[in-house]
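Whether sequence alone determines local backbone shape is best considered at the level of individual chains. The sequence in question and its structure tokens are set out directly beneath this paragraph.

===
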Amino acid sequence: MTGTDEPMHVTDARRSSLSRGRVLVITVLVLYFACVAIKAQRTGWVSGWRMMGVQSLTPPFKDGELLLRSFDRYRDGIPIPQVEKDSPYPPIWLWTFGPTGLSASDAVAVGVITGAAVTVMTVLFLGQLTLLEGAFAALLLISPCFMLGIERGNGDSFVFMIAVCAIWLLAHRARSAVAAAFLILWAAALKFYPIAALIAFIKKQNGWRYIVVCSLLFVAYCLLSLDDLKRIAKYTEGWGRETSLSFGCMVSFDRLYLFLQQHGATFAKQWFELAGLAAALLVAAVVIGMTARRRLAASLTVNIAGIGFLAGAAIYLFCFLMGNHYAYRLRWLVLVVPQLFVWIREKGPAYRRAIATSVVLLCSVYGNAWSYGHLRSRAAIPADLINWLLFACLASLLFSTLRTELVSVLGQSHVGRLLARAVPLDRHETATARK
């Protein structure tokens, strides 16, 4: 008998089934990339990717080529402010990778290696899968939104790999919390939004200390980099906030603003931005209030699936609240998938929400791609609705997993007393909150 009191042949059959799911994912990915490569070789880079529904641009790995070109200019002695005028990356990219000698001529090689590495790490992170889970994972990984990041070859893929390494350290190494915190801070210094992954420390011993210290260090970094942040903001404002191939709380309101502007109405854009953020916070508050009862608490083990869920959900929610993000950042949602599978297998209190989140997630990575180009007018509203549903689902599940810790920390504060009135606690949680 095994540790779960199951017959040995049942366990062996399950392991065999799980391994077949991973084989399915690998097979689908190999076929996908083979089709893209053959088509691209025959009819061009753009044609190869657009055959798969990915909105491709030239030159190949365009975002990566732009970043590597900035390394060339940095090594040529051009001042960093001048380099940053043509690049949305903070100087730490130049300081860290400029001395490597990588240049724009290496864009294809770097793009291929990075794309292969992030794909392999993603498959390893997903772990063993049943055939049904493998089919879901395969559809997720070949979705246009996931593949958009690989086609662009941008720095987000590298930042994603850093975060996965941090999650692995935090889940498997009891004494590696400092290294994990350093990696998350490095990822946040490169792209800012991964700082939300610090929430994964809540489940670790002395986790709040790491969160406070790392948050203070990150704030100090932002203050010291304020001029650089302003330059990056000015660069993105020059292009305008995108509403196609994008998700976030302001996308829908930006579309409304543009629609009213085209029909002669004049409103300050800032009001639409505030409305988007306020709407997102209201949605989060409502779903948390509806699912915050203890009987709906979502159990979570401090392993790679659990830590990955905390990091992935927090990053997505943070990005959604920030405003508009390109759809390739939906790749971070792969971090929540193993834990969703665990909840579905357990059929516990989070079972239905995990199924709903999985369905909405899969719809999101395809719906955001379909809201581009000639389908934009018909698919934009459904795509936005799906993104808002996904935000609500993840807000509910994330709070459910952290409910006890939040009650414990806030228990004796004014906020905690208000929370206790809104969400009655059982005796165990009340005792925990009073400690």
